[in-house]
Each structure stands twice: as structure tokens, then as C-alpha cells.
Amino acid sequence: MSAHKKLLLLPGDGIGPEVMREVKRVIDWLARRRGVIFDIEEDLVGGASIEARGTPLSDGTLRLARDADAVLFGAVGGPAWDHLGFDNRPELAILGLRRELGLFANLRPAIVYDPLVTASSLKPEIVRGLDLMIVRESTGGIYFGEPRGIETLEDGSQRGINTEVYTTHEIERVGRVAFDLARKRKSHVHSVEKSNVMESGLLWRQVMAALQTREYADVALTNVLADNCAMQLVRQPTQFDVIVTTNLFGDLLSDLAAQLTGSLGMLPSATLGTVQPDGRRHALYEPIHGSAPDIAGRGVANPLAQILSFALLLRYSFDMQEIAADLEAAVIRVLGNGLRTADIMAPGAARVGTGVMGEAVLRELDKAA
Ligand code: NAD
Ligand code: IPM
Ligand code: MN
Fold it and tell me: Could you give the C-alpha distances from 346 to 104, 116, 239, 343, 351, in angstroms and in order?
């Protein structure tokens, strides 16, 4: 058995393989310059796997993911597969991995790096210094609740159904992740739901409150309704430290938070499972953006969210804090040097494509080595 950490790369569709290529160059650099070697597997997921194997997530891929110390995911989906039913869509790859590996806590940090303070669509004074962590529940809620489906009624018209469900256990375990993270940050959790209209939201609020009283009296807890939270995020985002919320609200609020930082192309994420008796913990890392069909194949995608997702992987799963910090610092220096992909372009900056951006990160790593 190899002593090296097992890393599974799943590039996926659209810009997924384009941005993953830049991470592979970082991996090669680490081997060459730092002697850090991983045991790497790569496989197809999403539309690419549908084309090759007729399924978005094959049993073999799932086995590789279970066996890996960490999974780095690109993005899946695209117009070519939008006509497929919900039993065979590319998106099932990511949903299936979350579900099958029990990856219930999706951590989505939104950090405004100084050089990008003018890239946000909000005023610099509103977003400067933003360092927010969204903890999105990711194996429950309306994404997975039963019943679901589209049924035909007696008059021939149809009815679409999805169900929002949360249990005490599901709320507590994601709540603990949020409170534990807050303890290492500014000790403030905002819990976000719609307890004014949904029973599942009311239970969410009650369970979070009880958990805080019982186990986290040292951490401040503020309850916010999801609609107000969306407004507060654009009004004064720096009021937040850690936001913990449901699967669906977390999906929406994290895309919103991404734009606060300048672009969807900047936000990484980590999705963590339970710590198992042997100390192992399944974990998957991915940018929060999708396969971006509108720009795929043109070499213009921003690879930084994928590279920063790899930095999170090094930090959380491989305990390589120093290398992760070097990689993050290299990304910030590249931005400081004025290099920009189209999505974060600013007046006076140098516009570059995916490959040049990745190359620039390697050059900054060279300087630190
Ligand atoms: P998207 O995130 O792919 O794109 C939204 C917009 O942001 C587009 O204009 C795109 O060009 C831009 N963008 C995204 N990432 C970028 C990057 N790295 N650099 C520069 N610009 C970037 O969302 P969408 O268009 O709503 O969805 C497209 C497909 O992706 C759909 O099939 C959707 O289901 C899928 N999707 C997959 C994932 C995932 O695999 N985790 C996440 C979100 C969406
Ligand atoms: C995300 C994506 C996914 C989600 C899709 C592709 C299933 O939007 O990771 O944010 O909705 O969770
Ligand atoms: Mn999303």
C-alpha cells in the first residue's frame, strides 16, 4: 500500500477540466519543487460519464471516492444533458457523492482579497475585509426530501412536488460544525431559515437555540430569516462571521456571497462528512461555480476557485497547512500583480486566460520556494 495520500480528481464537464488542468500543474510543481507526492486517480463524472458509461456516477467512481483520502471535483452539467430526467442528469454526480459519502457540511468561505476589492459589484467600503463562512447543510432538506416527482392529475394537468424535511439529528450535526468553526473565528453564528412560514424552519431554529444553550454558550447565536439574510448580505456583509443554513438557502446565499468577492470564479468549497471511528473523514472539495457552458472551451475561465479548493483540501484533509498557506498567498500576489481573468477584470489590469493565470500562480510559488 502506498504511504502517499490518495487524491481522486473528478474534472467533469465544461470548464471543469479546464480549471482542473491548472491544479494538476500545481500538483506537478509540488512534486518537482517540494518533493510532495500524492497517489492520484482521475475519473469521469457528470455528462462525460454519461457519454462514456451511460451514468453520471458509476459504481467504480463511487468506490474510488470512498477509498480516497480526499476528492477534488470540478463541475458537471451542460445544455447537452438538460433534457435528461432526474434519474440520469449530470448533477446527480455531485448530489450522489454528497449523499453516498455522507458529506453533510458544505463549507463555503467568502473572502474579499484586497486586490479584488473593486471587482465586487458592491462599493469597496461595503465589502473591504469581508471574511465570511457559509456552512450549508448538504445531504438533506428539499434536495433529498420525499415525496418528490411530477404527477399527472385527473384533469390531465400536472403537479410538481418536492419536500423540505429536517430532523433534529441533521440540524444538530451541521450546527456543531458551524459553532466549532465560529469558536476559531469571531464566535458568532447566524442561523438562517424561514421559521415564520415553514415547520422545518421552526424546528431548525429551536434545535439551533437548544444546541447553543447546551454546548456553545460561549458563541453568540443570531437567528435571521432567509429573505432578510439575503438583504443583509448586500447591505452590510461584514456583520457576518459564520452563517449556518439549509441546503437550498445555502445554495442561493453562497452564489450571492461569491459575487461580493468579485466573481463566482473565486469561491472554493469543502464538503465534509462525519469523523469515523478510525479517524478518517470523507471530504470533497470543489469550486462553487458550475460548468459555465457560456464560456467553456475558450480558455478564459478563472481557475482560482479550483486552485483555492485544492488549498482547502491540503489544509483540511492532508494537514499541509504551510503549503496551503503558500498557495493561497501566491494567488493573492498574482491578483496584487494586476493579473485578471475576464470575470474579475478591472480598468488598468492585465487580462489573461486560464493557462496564464495558472502559470502566474506557479511563478509566485517559485518565488516562495
Ligand atoms: P455556472 O456557475 O456554471 O455559471 C454562472 C455564470 O458564472 C456564467 O456566466 C459563467 O460563465 C460564470 N462563471 C462560473 N464559473 C466561472 C469561472 N470559473 N470563471 C469565469 N466565469 C465563471 O452556473 P449555471 O450557468 O447556472 O449552470 C451551468 C451548469 O452547471 C448547469 O448544468 C448546472 O446544473 C451546473 N452546475 C454545476 C455545479 C457543480 O458541478 N458543482 C455547480 C453549479 C452549477
Ligand atoms: C452547487 C450546485 C449544485 C447544488 C448542483 C449542481 C446540484 O449548484 O454545488 O452549488 O445545487 O448543490
Ligand atoms: Mn449552486
Answer: 37, 9, 27, 9, 9
pLDDT tens-digit series, residues 316-325? 999 999 999 9
For ligand 1, whether the C-beta of 76 sits within 6 Å is yes
Q: Among all residues, which ones are annotated catalytic?
A: 143, 194, 227, 251, 255
Helix, strand, coil tally for the chain in percent (to 5): 45, 20, 35
Nearest protein Cα to ligand 1, atom 31: 77
As a whole number, mean pLDDT of residues 117-132 equals 94
Tell whether the model's pLDDT for residue 147 goes beyond 70: yes
289 lines ligand 1 (CB under 6 A): yes
Of all protein residues, the one whose alpha carbon is nearest to atom 1 of ligand 2 is 288
Given the DSSP bridges, would you call strands 149-152 and 158-161 parallel, antiparallel or unpaired? antiparallel
To test the pocket of ligand 2, the residue of 13, 95, 245 to mutate (highest count of ligand atoms within 8 Å of its CB) is: 95
**Beta carbons of 130 and 237 less than 8 angstroms apart:** yes
What pLDDT is attached to residue 3?
79
- Ligand 2 close to Cβ of residue 92 (< 6 A): no
Task: Report the C-alpha gap between 190 and 192 in whole angstroms.
Answer: 6
User: Looking at residue 274, what DSSP letter applies?
Assistant: P
Kindly give, in sequence order, each residue whose CB lies less than 8 Å from that of residue 303, ignoring residues fewer than 6 positions away: 18, 19, 21, 22, 23, 341, 354, 357, 358
User: Please, are residues 272 and 177 in contact by the beta-carbon 8 Å criterion?
Assistant: yes
Specify whether the CB–CB gap between 12 and 45 falls below 8 A: yes
* pTM score of the predicted model: 0.96
Atom of ligand 2 nearest to the CA of 247: 12
Atom of ligand 1 nearest to the CA of 16: 40
Q: Name the closest ligand to CA 76.
A: 1
3-state secondary structure of 132: strand
Q: Is the pLDDT of residue 201 over 80?
A: yes
Backbone angles phi, psi at 222, to 5 degrees: -125, 130
The minimum-distance atom of ligand 2 relative to the CA of 255 is 10
| pLDDT higher than 90, residue 369 | no
- Give the tens place of pLDDT for each residue, 227-260: 999 999 999 999 999 999 999 999 999 999 999 9
